Amino acid sequence: MADGNRCDRGYSGGEAVTFSIAAVCKETGETGCAVSSSSICVTSRCAFVGPGGAALTQNVTNPALGMQAIQLLKEGMAPQQVIDTLLQDEHYPQWRQLLVVDSRGRSALFDGEKALGIVGRAKGDGCVAAGNLLADSRVPVAMVKAFENSEGQLAERLILAMQAGVAAGGEAGPVYSAGLRVARPNIEWPVIDLRVDWHDSPIDSLYENWLRYAPQLEDYVMRAANPDAAPSYGVPGE
Asked: What is the sign of the dihedral through the CA atoms of 230, 231, 235 and 237?
């Protein structure tokens, strides 16, 4: 069941605002995450996926934590153990906000004491959402509910959750970048890696990118696995 946590830590401006969700599809075993922020190119620093799960590192971000989390998940470590392990060697845990979900649907979160502004967090069935500098601490609750009540592909459900977060109030300020990443079991590379690095409506733009990419997704997976069986797109010289 989702739960909210209000924590106003006196934001005074000048830092990035971020909200995100990580989740698993229990039917396919896919894991993925979606994120949006006021800062440019948020996905490159905050969102990480692999065959074992998904991780987000945000607030004042250390991207290395996301990379390490994916490796630990791949090795079979449970999400809470992943976070505990990451924090053992992290020199500035008070600034970090972490979300982790594994391919079994287990999840864990961490909010450092210096997480900015209004901080919210929520856990659901196979998903976890959180944010900082939120307009309302229950924004992640709305995201989790939207994910749990949706059907279809994991990527679509993650974007629907992000849109629900915006509808619930979103961030205290504008967001300009957004991204979506999804991994499959036994495939080392993300089968979905869509990003909007700077846009006035990044989540809507991200959804448009997904609608363009979705019909071609399986063809790109096939090109990696078996090029002889992959369809042609009619490119000149192909």
From this structure: positive
65, 82, 175 from 172: Cα distances, Å:
26, 30, 9
68: its two tokens: 């390490």
Distances in Å between the alpha carbon of 76 and those of 52, 82, 181? 7, 10, 20
Q: What is the pLDDT of residue 16?
A: 65
**CA 17, 157, 211, 216 torsion-angle sign:** positive
142 has a pLDDT exceeding 70: yes
Neighbours of 189 (CB within 10 A): 12
Cβ pair 32, 192 in contact under 8 A? yes
Residue 185 has pLDDT above 80, yes or no: yes
Selection from 165, 188, 127 nearest residue 1 by Cα: 127
- Length of the chain counted residue by residue: 238
Phi-psi region of 126 (alpha: psi -120 to 50; beta: other; left: phi over 0): left
